[in-house]
Amino acid sequence: MRQFLLSHDGGFACHNIPVTNGPVIRRFQIEDLIIQDESGIVFRALDTETGKPVAVRRFFPFGESGDGLQDDEQVAYGIAISRLAGIQHPALRAAICGGCDPVDGMPFIATEWVEGEALPLILQGQNMPVESTTELITKALEVCELLSQIFAEEAVWVETDLQTIVVGNEESGRGFTFWISPFKWLGRQDSNRGLESIVALTEEVMGWTGQIVNDQAGRGLGGWVNWLRNAASTTSLHEAREMLAASVGIEPPPPAGHLVAKATAPALKPLKRPGTSKMPMFAILSLCIAIAGLGSWQWIRKPSRTEPPALAEAAPTVPETPAPAPKPRLKSTKPVVMT
Q1: pLDDT tens-digit profile of 256-308?
Q2: In what order do the strands lie in the sheet with 176-177?
Q3: Smallest Cα–Cα separation from 132: which of 197, 7, 218, 217?
């Protein structure tokens, strides 16, 4: 059972308990205990390298009273965490790092902190509109197919418990945001790799749990649920995405390779907008004035190549003296003496 009262902190439906002088897990300074249940504990922590808040989850892989991971299991867990490094998707809490407690072997994972509210707090017991449900399920399937490409195995890699799904607030710029389920690679749910949890999630938010649904219900969403109820254990994630798009009349999904390329692409530097230069505007104006002044000063100092007409008319006329004609060269009259 969950041990704390409801609140709106970071999308968790629980009461946060401040931790004074909390311990440090790797580089994360524990600040608040957010939630604890039979699966583990969630802390709000401060990333001492970036100064940003993060969510640190410590898992109980074999129950609250069970042991941690053995050495070979810790290696496998570390490999899974390393594959998540750098994966970015707006509907997935990005994994920062993870590992295992060196004392008891309990695994943990640190993910980004998303400001928002847990889905149950938004629904307040009401059914979700069809458009929102379509978006929710589309995002869940998309993230699962992305992670299936990363882990080279198809599965519902996100947690579908409503308490774990966060709707980001306006400042965060996030919509439905899922948390990766570590129990998939920890061996807790190996017996079920189908899409039954996606069916259950759709039925829960639409109020269709345990009901016979008409194919036309929910603008075609009912037909997709009926199909997936029968095909959950045999269909693929991409086929489920294609069938959902066709049933509700939205654009067909992009291929899985496109998802991976987009999720692993490095972030591009945003172009600077005009007027965002670091040089103050007054400095630019001063430079322009200085250049203009220097140009004017040089123009004034430059001597004129042609004499102004007024000065030319006032100048006295001086008669030109012809140059003396050259004297003719006379021939010598001295007799030439022949020898």
Answers
A1: 899 999 998 764 443 344 344 443 444 444 544 544 554 544 444 444 444 44
A2: 116-118, 166-168, 176-177
A3: 218
The residue assigned the tokens 């004034």 is 300
| Cβ 59 vs Cβ 110: under 8 Å | no
Asked if residues 154 and 193 have their Cβ atoms less than 8 Å apart, the reply is: yes
Structure tokens, 126: 């009401």
pTM: 0.72
Q: Position 49: which residue type?
A: E
Residue 130 DSSP class = H
Side-chain-side CA neighbours of residue 212 (13 Å): 0
The residue written with tokens 């439906």 in the block is 13
- Residues in Cβ contact with 15 at an 8 Å cutoff, skipping those fewer than 6 apart: 4, 5, 6, 7
Question: 189: Cβ–Cβ under 8 A, 6 or more apart, which residues?
Answer: 181, 183
Burial of 205 (0-12, 13-18, 19+ CB in 10 A): buried
